[in-house]
Design brief:
By secondary structure, this protein is an alpha+beta fold. The protein has four helices and ten strands, in the order αββααββββββαββ. The protein has one domain: 2-Layer Sandwich (Double Stranded RNA Binding Domain). About 15% of the residues have low confidence.
Length: about 200
C-alpha cells in the first residue's frame, strides 16, 4: 500500500515538474541573478566596440567542442555590450566560465556540469535522491584582460537558482546579467532581472 502511495506521489511530482517545464518554454520567465563586477581602469570608453578573443583554461582546452558551443552561445550576448570577436588583433582577451549545479530543495548537491561546458563533464555526487523538487544553480564568471599587458580590466560573476533545466536558454540570461555593468563595473552585490521569453531576452530597468 505504501509503495503504491509513493508511486502516485512520484508521478504527481513528475507531472508538476513537466508542467512547469512546458509552461516555461512558451511564456516569459524572470531570471534573477546576483551579480558583482569590478573594473580596474578608468580608460575604457563608455561604449564599444571592444575587440577580444577568447582565452581558454587547460580544462576548457581539453573539451574543445563543448567550449566551442559555449562561446558560440555567448557571442550574441556579449555583442549587446559592444564586445566583438577579433582573433587577429584583439584589444582584450576574455576568459569565460559557466557551470550548472543540480541541487534539491534541501540544498543537497548531487550533480554538476563544470569546466565551462554545456552538457559535458557531468558526474554524480552523494545527495538526496528523494521526491524533493530539483533546482538548478547557474553560475557565470568572466575575466577581461588587456591583450598586451595581460592586466585585468573587468571581472564579473553572476549566479541564479531556479527550477529551469534548459541550460541553453537560462545560461545566456545569466551571462547577460553578468555584463550589465560593463564597462563601468559595480562592486556591490546587486540583483539583476532578465525577462526571458521565446522571442529573446530583455533586462529590466
Amino acid at each position: 500500500m505504501r509503495a503504491r502511495h509513493g508511486l502516485r506521489v512520484f508521478r504527481l511530482c513528475m507531472l508538476v515538474f513537466l508542467g512547469l517545464a512546458l509552461a516555461g518554454c512558451g511564456t516569459t520567465r524572470l531570471i534573477d541573478s546576483q551579480v558583482r563586477s569590478f573594473t580596474t581602469t578608468a580608460d575604457l570608453p563608455a561604449e564599444g566596440p571592444f575587440s577580444f578573443r577568447f582565452e581558454r583554461l587547460p580544462s576548457q582546452q581539453a573539451d574543445a567542442q563543448a567550449q566551442d558551443r559555449l562561446e558560440e552561445m555567448a557571442l550574441p550576448v556579449l555583442a549587446q555590450k559592444g564586445l566583438v570577436p577579433d582573433a587577429l588583433v584583439p584589444r582584450f582577451t576574455l576568459e569565460l566560465r559557466m557551470a550548472v549545479d543540480v541541487i534539491n530543495q534541501s540544498g543537497s548537491f548531487h550533480a554538476h556540469w563544470g569546466f565551462g561546458t554545456i552538457g559535458s563533464g557531468l558526474w554524480s555526487q552523494p545527495g538526496s535522491m528523494g521526491l524533493e523538487p530539483t533546482r538548478y544553480r547557474y553560475s557565470v564568471h568572466l575575466l577581461l584582460r588587456d591583450a598586451a599587458s595581460k592586466a585585468v580590466v573587468f571581472e564579473s560573476t553572476a549566479a541564479h537558482e531556479g527550477p529551469w533545466s534548459d541550460r541553453a536558454a537560462v545560461l545566456p540570461a545569466v551571462l547577460l546579467a553578468a555584463v550589465q555593468d560593463f564597462p563601468q563595473g559595480s562592486d556591490k552585490v546587486r540583483r539583476v532581472l532578465i525577462d526571458l521569453s521565446p522571442s529573446g531576452m530583455q533586462p529590466r530597468p
